[in-house]
Task: structure prediction
Amino acid sequence: MNRKLALNYITFQTPIGWLVVAESPDGIALVDFLGQGCPAREAVISAVLRYYPDAALSPG
Result:
């Protein structure tokens, strides 16, 4: 299934590079490490997420 998602994200600058944490309104999450060569904070970050709607994401 391919679809575009709007992701709300925040970036953290760490001593070894940039960490990106994002989530969609559907609760799909992304955590990515960009390393030292991170684009400017205002840059658009795009990613390919694999979505498995039948997978159990949490216990219970």
